[in-house]
Amino acid sequence: MREKGASFPTGSKLSLREINKSFSKDGSPLAVLLDISLFASQGEFISILGPSGCGKSTLFNVIAGLVQRDGGIISIEYREVDSGLGNIAYMQQKDLLFPWRTILQNVLLGPEISRGVHKGTRREAVDLMKRVGLGGFEGNYPAELSIGMRQRAALVRTLLFHKDILLLDEPFGALDAMTRSVMQRILLGLWMDYGKTILLVTHDVEEALLLSDRIYVLTARPATIKGEINVDIPRPRKVTDSSFVDLKGILLDMLQGEIERVFT
Amino acid sequence: MTKRLLYPAILLILFVIFWELMVWQFQVPHYILPAPSRILRTLAVQQSLLFHHTLITLEEIIAGFLLAFVVGVGLAFLMFQFPVLEKSFYPIVIGSQTIPVFAIAPLLVLWFGYGLSSKVVMAALIVFFPIVVNTLDGLKGADSDEVNLLRILKANRWQILWKVRVPSALPFIFSGCKIGISVSTIGAIIGEWVGSKEGLGYLMLHANAQLQISLIFASLIYLTILGVGLFYLVVFMERWVMPWKRLSEVR
C-alpha cells in the first residue's frame, strides 16, 4: 500500500498531478477536489473508490474536459494536455442511449461523429453487439430493451468511441446484483481482449476488488487520495478467496472513517 | 379506439334526437333553430356549395399553418443559436399575444386585400405563437448529459444541434403544431368574416343574412370535420416522424 503523495512512475498512459477544483456555493467556494494525483499505465484497470457524493464524478468531468479545473496537470502519454477531450471515452450510470435511434445507430454514434461509418465499423459494431448478447437487436429502439441490455449497448457504444482510455462512472450502479455481475464479466472480457486503459468510479468495494489492478481510495468531500491498493489476486477472482476477504477488510476500514465523516 | 368513441357517439345521437323532438314539439321556426333533419337535407342539397367553400378555407388554413411553421421554427432556432435575438424577440413575441387577432383583422384585410393572403396571414399569426414557444423550449430542454456525450466526441455545435437538440425538440414541436392546427381555423374564419368573397366563414355570414340557419349549421359541421381531420393529420405525421415515441409511451 502506497501512501498519499508517494511518487509515481512517469510515462503512464494517463496521469493527474495535484488536480484542484472548487465550485462556488452561496457565494463562497466549496472545495470538491483537493490535490488529486493518480496515474494509470497502458492497459491498466484502475478503480476509484469513495463514499457517495465525494466528487468522483467531478473528477471524471475534469478529466473528460467537461468541467474546467482550477489547477493541476493532466498528461496523456507523457504529454501535458488541456484535458482528456478527444482522447477518452466516457460512460455513465445513465445509459444515455438516444431514444430516437435504433441500437445499432446508437452504438455507432462515435464513428459517426468523428470519421464516418464504414462497412468495417458497422461489422465491428454488429460483432460486438453479438458478443455482449445483443445480437438481433440492431434494429430495435432503446425503449424496447431491458435496463441491463441498454447498459450493454452503452458499453458497446463506449468501446466504439475507439479511444484508449475509458472512464466508467458507476456504469452498473443502477443494475440489480445479478445483472451487475454479468456486466462485470462482460467488461472484464472486453478489457482483456481490447487492452484499454480503464478508470472505473465506484462505491462498491467488491466491484472494485473483482475488476481492478489497482484501487485509489478517496476521502469524503473535499476528495483527496486517501490511499492506494494493489490487487494482486489472479483473475477470475472469487469474493470468497482469503486474499480477497483480507483486502476487502482493509478497504472497508479505509472507507469507514470517510463514511462517518459524510454523516456527521 | 372504437370503444373510446362509443360513449360520446351515443351521447351525441341522443342529443340530436332530443333536439329534433324539441323543435317539433315547440314548433321552433327554422330560421331560429332548424331541426337536425333539415340540416341533413341542406347538407345533401348544398353539397357542392359547401365543398367549394370548405376547400377555400382549407387552403387558407394550410398556407397559414405552413407559413407560421416555417417562420416560427426558424425564429426559434435563431433565438436558440443567438441569445441576443432571444432577448430582443422573446418579450415581443409574448407581448404580441395580448393583442387579440380579432382586433387587427380589419387592418390585415386593408393591407392584404379581400383575397386569400389576408386569411393566410391571420391564421399564421394565431398558429405562430405555440410553435415558436414550444420549439424554443424543446431545443433548450435537451438532456445536458446527452449533449456532453457529443462534446466528449468533439462534436461541433451543428452536430450537437442536429443529432441531439433537434430530435429531443421534436415532441415539443409537434405539441406546438397540434395546438397551432387546432386554433388555425379561428384565424381563417375571422379573416373571412371581416372581408372575403369565399370560404366557410363567408358562407356562414351570407347564410345568416338570408336567415338560412340550416346552412350555417351545415357549414359548422364541415368546419368541425375539417378541424378534426387536420388535427389527426398532424397526429399521424407525428407518429410517422417519431416511430420511437409510441414505444416510450408504452413503458
Layout of secondary structure:
The complex is a heterodimer of chains A (264) and B (251).
Chain A: E1 14-25, E2 28-40, E3 45-49, H1 56-64, E4 71-76, E5 79-81, E6 88-91, H2 103-107, H3 109-114, H4 119-131, H5 147-159, E7 165-169, H6 177-194, E8 197-202, H7 205-211, E9 214-218, E10 225-230, H8 242-262
Parallel strand pairs in A: 3-8, 3-9, 6-7, 7-8
Antiparallel strand pairs in A: 1-2, 1-4, 4-5, 9-10
Helix pairs in contact in A: 5-6, 7-8
Chain B: H1 2-25, H2 36-45, H3 47-81, H4 83-96, H5 101-112, H6 116-140, H7 144-152, H8 157-194, H9 200-209, H10 213-241, H11 243-250
Helix pairs in contact in B: 2-10, 3-4, 3-6, 3-8, 3-9, 3-10, 5-6, 5-8, 6-8, 7-8, 8-9, 8-10, 9-10, 10-11
Task: Please give a structural write-up.
The complex is a heterodimer of chains A (264) and B (251). By secondary structure, chain A is of the alpha/beta class. Chain A has eight helices and ten strands. Chain A has helices spanning 56-64, 103-107, 109-114, 119-131, 147-159, 177-194, 205-211, 242-262, and strands at 14-25, 28-40, 45-49, 71-76, 79-81, 88-91, 165-169, 197-202, 214-218, 225-230. In chain A, the strands form two sheets. Chain A has a six-stranded mixed β-sheet with strand order 6-7-8-3-9-10, with helices on both faces. In chain A, strands 2-1-4-5 form a four-stranded antiparallel β-sheet, with helices on one face. In chain A, helix 6 links the parallel strand 7 and strand 8. The longest helix of chain A has 21 residues, at 242-262. Chain A is globular, with a radius of gyration of 19 Å. The two termini of chain A are 28 Å apart. Residues 1-7 of chain A have low confidence and may be disordered. Chain B is 85% helix and 0% strand. Chain B is mainly α and 251 residues long. In chain B, helix 5 (101-112) packs across helix 6 (116-140) and helix 6 runs antiparallel to helix 8 (157-194). Chain B is built from eleven helices and no strands. At the A-B interface, strand 6 and helix 3 of A face helix 7, helix 8 and helix 11 of B.
